[in-house]
Amino acid sequence: MKISKQARREAKQLFRSCQVDERMDADRVRQAVGLLIEKKPRGYHGILQHLQRLVKLDEASRSARVESAVALSEAQQQSVRTSLGRLKSGEVTVEFAENTGLIGGMRVKIGDDVFDGSVKTRLASLSESF
After folding, report:
1. What residues make up the domain containing 47?
2. What pLDDT, in 10s, does the model give residues 12-48?
3. Residues 38 and 19 in one domain
4. What are the distances in angstroms from CA 27 to CA 23, 52, 93, 120, 124?
5. How many structural domains compose the chain?
6. Strand pairing partners for 70?
């Protein structure tokens, strides 16, 4: 089902009204969805679909997965958390994982963004250049 421009606009407005200090407030989202379902304005299915998409994107941008070739110490993990918090201007939920296939370095995925500083990727790009 295609979502109309009007429904997208209304979902964006609703999304902005559910934010407090540029952070999603789950209680406000629940209240907004409840009111929307109760009142059932024209095109409310499209509004709900687009709102759900916006909330998922916001959640994904606030969570990160960090893969490193070796396990990081607690101090290194804290340093990564701090750096990611500055990058995303706020608190980021970070999941750490060990991936020996990277050979060295680390790969960070935040939402759809991937920052790859691994030796494996550098070797692959070097071999492609020959």
Report:
1. 5-60
2. 999 999 999 888 899 999 999 999 999 999 999 999 9
3. yes
4. 12, 14, 19, 43, 46
5. 2
6. none
pTM of whole model > 0.90?
A: no
**Alpha helix ranges (H) inside 62-118:** 74-87
Give the tokens for residue 64: 């990160």
Examine the domain organization and report whether 87 and 53 are in the same domain.
Answer: no
Q: Which amino acid, 33?
A: V
How many beta carbons lie within 10 A of that of residue 80, not counting itself?
19
Q: Which residue, of 60, 87, 103, is where some domain finishes?
A: 60
Both 51 and 96 in a single domain?
no
Buried/exposed code over 21-50 (b: 16+ C-beta within 10 A; e: otherwise) = eeeeeeeebeebbeebeeeeeeebebbbeb
